[in-house]
Amino acid sequence: MSDKLEIFNVLKEIDKKNVGFYDGLSDEHKKQFVPLLTMRWLSSGTKLQTQLQNSILNPMVFKLHRHPGLLYKLMVATSDGKSKRYTWIKKKSKDKSAPTVVAVISSYYQCSKKDALRYKKQLSEDDILEMADELGYDKEQVKKLKTELK
After folding, report:
1. pTM value?
2. pLDDT in tens, 4-53
3. Other C-beta atoms within 10 Å of 95: how many?
4. Which burial class, exposed, middle or buried, applies to 11 when counting CB atoms under 10 A from its CB (0-12, 13-18, 19+)?
5. How many Cα atoms within 13 Å fall on the side-chain side of residue 97?
6. CA angle 41-10-57, nearest 5°?
7. CA–CA–CA angle 107, 113, 116 (5° rounding)
8. CA 54, 58, 60, 64: dihedral to nearest 10 degrees?
9. Which residues contact 86 (CB under 8 A, 6 or more apart)?
């Protein structure tokens, strides 16, 4: 074995339902096994597999975090036994909203930034520019506002 534990080898062994794979790893490879990372990869599997993970594996993750071997066996139990291609599911990115637009809306309505983000979805570009005008924004600020709105 190489000196690095490959995630795709782990996923392949889970798909093969190889319960003894983790127990057969060297101590160095056992230290490299990261259950949460493996679970993130597994979540891109079939719908049935995801449902099994949600009902069996996920509730036990933090209770068994000191027992990665048991977590591995639960991962095997949630597998459908079919080889598949896994993909990384990216974390949902936060709304990269325009700070000037949000500032205009929150100033105009005297609300929080969180509320202003919700209002932004319902307002047109002209509405926001009109608000900025009423709030006394100068030409340079309005120009920056227009670039954020595009």
Report:
1. 0.62
2. 999 999 999 999 999 999 999 999 999 999 999 999 999 999 999 999 99
3. 10
4. buried
5. 18
6. 55
7. 70
8. 150
9. 8, 11, 41, 42, 44, 45
